[in-house]
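User: If you would, consider this record:
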Amino acid sequence: MIRTLFCALALTLLSMGNAAAEQKQSVGTFDIHYVALGSTFITPSIAKTYGIKRSSYTGLINISVLDTSTEGNPAIPVEISGIANNLLDARVELTFKEICEGEAIYYIAEVPYRDDQEINFQIAIKYGNKLNTQLKFKQKFYVN
């Protein structure tokens, strides 16, 4: 069957080189891994499996949070919400979908974009009283 979406995205990123490498932010004993890319970089079968709209005008955000204080750095379930806005301040509320496969937990959201458009992301991540942070990053998208 199809491997996890996270593995598929990792393979996609490797084939793309450093241009859209996965990024990480460490907060206390947690590592937040995140990536944003055009949804056409994933295969149609993976998009269908996870209910992702595959379009030249749809971006995909993938976030996972690992607990580095525990052996094996397991993924943890978090509360997550976010907003994406472009340079003209058009805002889109991000709706994250939790995906659990085995011990992997990750959150995906879709965002619309236009060609050569930079989008700013503000993501709120909370894990009980142990983690309460804002993740902010930018990504430029291109229509292919």
In short: DSSP finds two helices and nine strands in the chain. Confidence is low (pLDDT under 50) at residues 10-19. Residues 5-16 form the longest helix (12 residues).
